Every structure is written in structure tokens, then in C-alpha cells.
Fold this sequence. Notes:
Oligomer: single chain
Helix content: under 10%
Amino acid sequence: MKKHFGIFFFLGILFFSVFQQSCxxxxxxxxxxxxxxxxxxxxxxxxxxxAIGSSTAQIKVYNPHNKNIKIAAIGLAKGAHSPYRMNLDGxxxxxxxxxxxxxxxxxxxxxxxxxMIHPLPSDEPILMKDSIVFLTNGNYxxxxxxxxGQNVEVLRNKIILNDTTLTNTKPYLIFGDLIVDxxxxxxxxxxxxxxxxxxxxxxxxxxxxxxGTRENPILFRGDRTxxxxxxxxxxxxxxxxxxIILLNKQGVxxxxxxxxxxxxxxxxxxxxxxxxxxxxxxxxxxxxxxLKWGLxxxxxxxxxxxxxxxxxxxxxxxxxxxxxxxxxxTVANYFNNxxxxxxxxxxxxxxxxxxxxLNRIIPMETSFQNCVISGNNTNELxxxxxxxxxxxxxxxxxxxxxxxxxxxPPMFQNVIWSSANDTVFVNTIFNRKEKxxxxxxxxxxxxxxxxxxxxxxxLFKYDLNGQNRLADGKPDAGAYEWQPTKK
Length: 487
């Protein structure tokens, strides 16, 4: 009897389950109060270059109710004429229109959107607007689509064979290498923008003169204008492109009011001929966020002033051979890609500044005045020399994140050495949650405040932000004069 009871009990459960499934309510509610919910109300693509397709973004559409809903129509307001294209749960439509889309109770669906901007009538950025419209039970809802379309000049494996000036009329999109031939000069107008594709380089066998202004700086960056995560632009990620490589043994190069960021290396300045000494001037510029180095100088004369070189996987500044002068510069290395990519790939353990007097081809001399050298290592300045007793180096009125030497070599004068509790900068981390990004302006309690040599500071009255560093009569070291927080 127990055996038969077990069989009947099992059959009863099976019958009840089948009956319950057959009674699932497949009806769709026509209640006009049942609105949809969306993962965002506006999808912004930033700047999109004409004739270059965008990456794909997504929107999640929710039915938060306990009743099934049939969406009568989903589509782009501009239909087939829209610069945007949509994909609904894997389906596409030439007119960007879909009808009678079912979405079950407590369920959701995905809409994928990309864009293709055709050449525009103006070289100025133009706002491209559209929206995804939803019609449900007589109610209209929408998600806005916004981006700036921008005409762009594409340079693909371009070789400059004559003296050339590149204008700021529209941005340049570089694929492969942009090469300046030997003995030729490339001039770049203020306000010019260069977007470099993966592994693209600027290789100069001649000369480069990139001279911007405070109001119209020159920009070198990667070509990804979208976001790697919802709250993190690709421009925060290093190794987006290659490097600026200067190889002319007689080169004359200038970078003034230039911003260079997020490639493999910033500026690589190299010479292998002991009979020549090329020159490089960097002023009022920022070289930031590189997988390897910010500035590499091998056997050349370099003058760097009023500039920031920061956050590199290896040395931020590497010097070997030549005369090197740094005045009112901030060299800060708190590189940590893990904060952006969520993977353990951070700083290699190298110092912010490496001065190596080994295997140099031409004589070497270095000078740092009114500078800040800092980072998250114990010692951020390294000097390696085969002839340390005759090394020609000078460090004056600067803050150096190193243990205080004992005795202090005579090359260091009026230098502030780091201590455990120093707070040097406003912000030395990237915090996605709080939307904080690195800020190498000086903190109010920074030990780099008020230590600069006044006479040297008069040569650079205005800091990298345009603030008067002489206003209080006590100029600060580094590229930035401390400013009170604005409320």
C-alpha cells in the first residue's frame, strides 16, 4: 500500500506542475500606467569622427511590473535617416523600427546602438541628436542619443617630404606612423589635435615645432573617445597608441603648451652620433599616463620648464648623455593601471627620475631647480654613474621624495627630503567610485610650498595653470603654485 501511495503522490505532483504551467497568464496588459524603465535616460557617445564607426553601446529596457507588456513600437525617431543604428536583442532593421515587442513581467531586453557619421558641412563639431522612442499602451517614452560629429583628416602611414605646417582646422586621425623626413621641419599650429590609433607613432627624422598657446594647446592622444567602463573613458587608459620618437642627430624640437597622454611612451629623444647634440625644448606642457616612459633623453640637450611629467609604468624621466635642465617641473609617478583596468598591472617599481651616466656618448650635465620629484616608491630619484665623484649634477630648491642621505652630497642645495607623513599633492589616486582623478597641484600642507628660489621663479611668473606664482612673494616648487580651494 505504501508503494502505491508513493506512485500516486508522484503523479499528483507531476499533474499539478503541468496544470500550473498551463495556467500561466500569457495575456498582455493594456494598462497605460505600466511604464518601462531604462538603464539610462541619455546615451552620450562623446566625439565621433566622420566615416569612422563608433563602438557599440547598450541600453537595458526593464519591465518592472507583474504583468506582461507588449511594446507596440520601438525605433529611432529619425528612422533610416538617423546617424545611429540599433540592434534589438540581436535583430536589426534597415529602418531602425520594430513592432509588437513582447517583454514579460519582471523581464528585460537589450538594445545595442552604434553610429556612423557622414561628412559634415562644417569642420566645427556638430551635435548629433536622435532618440529611441517606445510606444506602450498609448504612452510614449524615449531614451536620448547624443554625440558630437567631427570632420577629421585621416593620415595613414603618411610621410612628410617637405617643410610642412599642419593647421588646426580639423583634427588629425593617424593610422600607422606619421613620419617627418630627414632635414624637414613639421610645424603644428596652436589648437591642433592629433588622435592616434593603436600602435601609431610620430617618427621625426627632421624637426618638429609644436607650439601651442595657453588658450589653444596642442593635443596628442589615443583615438578612442568612448568609455572602457560606464564611468571610465578610454583616455584614462595607457598604451592607447605608440610614441613621439625624435631621431635627428641635428634636430631642433620644440613643444610649448602641448598635452600628450595615454600612449606607450611620451617623447623618446635619441642620438647615437657623438659629433652632434640635438636639442629639445618642452615648456608649459603635460606628459601623462604612459605604459613605459614619459620622457627619454639619450645624448641630447633638453630644457624642460613649467611642465608636468607623470604616471608611467617605468621611469617618468630617463636621462643619459647631454645637458638637461628642469625648472619648475613636477615629476610625479603614482601610476597604477589596476585602478582603471581592474587587473594587477601597475608601476614596475622604477623611480620617477633615473639619471644614468653609463655608456653615454656625449658629456652629461643635469640641473633641477624649483622642482618636485615624487611618487609612491621609497626613493623616486636614482643617479647611477661610473664616476660619481665628478658627476656634474645640481638639485636646488626642490622637493625630492627620497630618504635623506647622510652626508648630503654638495650637489643638493636647499632640498626638502621626504618624510613618512608628507601630503604633497591634492590627489594621487584614481577613484572610480568617487570620480576622483589624479591632481598634481600642491596640497595646502605640501612640503613643496614656499621653497622655490624667487629669482629663478621670475623667469616663469605664471604656473602651468596660469596662476601668478610670485603673488605672495613665496613661490612654490613644481609646475603648480598652490591655490586655495574654491568653495
